[in-house]
Amino acid sequence: MALLQLDFKNERDRTLFLPAQPVRSSTDFAWKSLYFEHRTGGDFETEEHEMSGHYLMVKLNPFSKAERKVDGRTQIENQRRGTLVYIPDGCPHRVRYLTKLGGLHLMSLSKDILAEVAGELGVSNFSGVPSLGENEDRFVLEIAESLNREVEAGNPHGTLFAETYARVLATHIITRYRVVEVTNKKLPNLNQKQIRWLDQYIEAMLPHSISLPELAKQVGLSQYYFCRVFKDATGLPPYQYVLHKRLEFVCECLKKDTMSIQDIAFSAGFGDPIQMAKQFKQAHGVSPSQYRAALRSSMR
Asked: pTM higher than 0.90, yes or no?
């Protein structure tokens, strides 16, 4: 008898396996390669099923004990904060919690993004090795916490944030949860001419969503290599650099004092004035209105 298929990006599948709603999830955002949810609960058990996509679970608090069966192997897990479970695409899996579920973050990466990043790394025929909650993985915990904060804030950084973290997670899975031979490739550097061109492109596209594939395309690099060399060249990952450019534009508009706060928010590519104000205050310590008022006072 064929096993049930679980695709976390499919609402019907999630409802069938996880009838209780998560505290928050990425379903409201246009994230293509990565699904995220933060979940808490009590009793929990699933039927045996196959994962569609690469599944990651990282435990929060409190301590939990679970019985997990993966690809015919069953073991008892003592889960503490940072404990990671990784289930590769297509791997048979079931779990039964012997204590309360507690709090955890769930993530699912599409098999396409794993295959794409594996190819960029020079890894052919990638096949993941399951990790059954035996060890902590602080790197994945920090990424999951960043995703949780982003979702809770309403995804102010847009799809670029998710695309960047999807590739970071894919790279981590490929390099840590599979022994592979990676071909050595020298990373190309971004020169000043390319940086200037990227700045011009970002500034021209500020009112719109700016994606990682489009940025990488501007300089003829794969998305994986682009993320690495871009941070080397600018000191920031792409999504933070784009946010910095948006906030620079906001400051210039506030100085000119010719546009409303709402018009500035939309022209800078923020979804609404509330999101802009939140990011602006985090960067400058004051709201856009307070910043404008201070400028007016200094000019009297």
From this structure: no
Give me the average pLDDT of each 10-residue run along the chain (300 residues).
74 79 93 95 86 92 89 86 92 90 94 91 84 88 96 93 95 81 60 92 92 89 84 90 94 90 93 91 94 85
Identify the CATH homologous superfamily for domain 4-176.
Answer: Jelly Rolls (2.60.120.10)
Instruction: Write the pLDDT tens digit of every residue in 45-73.
Output: 888 888 889 999 999 988 899 999 887 77
Q: Which residues pair with 95 in a beta bridge?
A: 68
Q: How far apart are CA 166 and CA 35, in angstroms?
A: 9
* Cα separation, 212 vs 160, whole angstroms: 6
Q: The domain at 188-300 falls in which architecture?
A: Orthogonal Bundle (1.10)
Domain ranges for the chain, please list them: 4-176, 188-300
**Phi and psi for 134 in degrees, rounded to 5?**
-90, -25
For 31, the enclosing helix (H) or strand (E) is none
Q: How many CA atoms lie within 13 A of 185 on its CB side?
A: 16
Output b/e per residue, 149-168; b: 16+ Cβ within 10 A. Answer: ebbeeebbbbbbbbbbbbbb
> What distance, in Å, lies between the first and last C-alpha atoms of the chain?
79
| 239/206 Cα distance (integer angstroms) | 12
- CB-CB contact of 85 with 132 (8 Å): yes
